[in-house]
Amino acid sequence: MKPRIDATNYLTSGFAQAMLRLQREVDSSGVEPSLLELMKIRASQINGCAYCIDMHTKDARLRGETEQRIYALNAWRETPFFNDRERAALEWTEAVTRLDDGHVPDELYERVRRVFTESELVALTFALVTINGWNRLSISFRVPAGTYQPQAVHA
Fold this sequence. Notes:
This protein has 155 residues and is mostly helical. It contains seven helices and no strands.
């Protein structure tokens, strides 16, 4: 697949800088970085964003995530590998990412609220806004998968 737009040429644009500022806010929200990476991978799987799947699986491994959990992520409900907090976040990820299903159910919201504080739930939702945005940019511009090289584990 041939890239359509070299997005690196636009990283200094106001659009990209706004997305990067939002990403930094999410990253500094206090939510565990490992959990955010799982959410990014899962949303990217749903959206079919090969570049973002490649990026976030590499970043997750650098953070110590196991291959087993990464490989099983798209079947998380069927495995014993994820704790209650991760399961709630993954279910929230799927509902917020798949808005074409109609809505985010009240029952799900109530389940997630039992595991996350209100501020964490806001951070999780903004994390999903950002990854879904990055997915749409990468897919639309056809950013080539496999080109991402992690620099270091982010704080």
